[in-house]
Write a structure and sequence with these properties.
Elements: H1 7-12, H2 14-17, H3 44-53, H4 59-68, H5 72-85, H6 88-100, H7 103-116, H8 122-128, H9 134-152
Helix pairs in contact: 3-5, 4-5, 4-6, 5-6, 5-7, 6-7, 7-9, 8-9
Length: about 150
């Protein structure tokens, strides 16, 4: 698997990783201590809490988990969080994972692109319509409909 092009961006968030300017209590009871210490052993529930927070300051941690964690379920939760946060950086990471992940993670990437509900998600979803796996093609079709509805609002 290729190293993501934004690899340096993850390190730029070091001040955020250390919790500077961030209220860890605002992330919920399931996330305690410094966010700097996220590892492969981080409990899924803690990642889910971090992802559901929608806190843009959690972007570096979620991006790292989505691209580097060895557990598909944790990567999927991190992708959900990136979809909730939104933005071009999130869209780029989600698209990269869509091209480089296993089936479970790629399906989660499609769901995350649908959460973005913006034009940045349309291109990757259209390309996913040509995926080898029929479940990915179907998920992409459904996600495109969700994005279309979101753009109409």
């Amino acid at each position: 698997m290729q190293t993501p092009v934004w690899d340096g961006v993850l390190n730029e968030g070091a001040a955020l990783d250390a919790g500077h300017g961030m209220d860890n209590d605002a992330l919920g009871d399931g996330v305690e201590g410094s966010l700097h210490d996220l590892t492969d052993s981080m409990p899924l529930e803690a990642v889910a809490t971090l992802a559901a927070s929608g806190n843009p300051q959690s972007w570096p941690q979620l991006a790292d988990l989505a691209t580097r964690n060895s557990h598909s379920a944790i990567r999927a939760e991190a992708l959900y969080g990136l979809g909730e946060i939104g933005g071009e950086r999130s869209a780029q990471i989600i698209e990269w994972v869509l091209l480089n992940g296993n089936l479970e993670v790629r399906a989660a990437a499609i769901d995350a692109l649908a959460l973005l509900e913006d034009a940045d998600s349309v291109g990757p979803l259209v390309r996913a319509l040509d995926d080898q796996d029929p479940s990915i093609r179907q998920a992409a079709s459904n996600a495109l409909e969700d994005v279309r509805e979101g753009l109409r609002r």
